[in-house]
Amino acid sequence: MTKRYWNITFEEMMEAGVHFGHGTRKWNPRMAPYISAKRKGIHITNLTRTARFLSEACDLVFDAASRGKQFLIVGTKKKAADSVARAAIRARCHYVNKKWLGGMLTNWYTTETRLHKFRDLRTEQKTGRLNCLPKRDAAILKRQLSHLETYLGGIKYMTGLPDIIIIVDQQEEYTALRECITLGIPTICLIDTNCDPDLADISIPANDDAIASIRLILNKLVFAICEGRSSSIRNS
Q: Which domain of life does this protein belong to (predicted)?
């Protein structure tokens, strides 16, 4: 994997509040190497480590994108949802930002069946066939479509398991992370001071509660993905 310069500055990380961790009572001792200080009852993340692992993650996704690999970005809590959707759409990645349905990856056959149903209903809606049905039947199918759009809308074009998964907030998305570990899918995880840094393939220590922090980390990663895709086009 080639090392590249991703212009990750301490100033922008400080401005986004990347360095603010959880209260000192809410921490995982395994995060000790990633914490530089305590301030007013809050752990302060070591931004040198953040920059290092974020850079490594950018190198990884750049190389993967240049080889046509597929990405899934997961972040379902309210503070992350909008940033996840925007970042994923910008980089043409799949995403889950509402709720992780258990077995979404480990029970891929069921997920694929739901996606086929979702695509069929969308086609029927676009062609106007739903409006030709009796009102009660049409209402039931429209409710199904709305439900599927909410939970599967970000993966509607996913035709197989993703190659790399980016996770915002390890604790919130623990079920998704465990599924990735079970299937051997590489993960990049944004981890706060209450997380376990040993679970993901690349753990990026950062504030997972501040919108600005989440957006900064995601923007760096999707920029690297976009650059990787562009390099693939230039070299083809």
A: Eukaryota
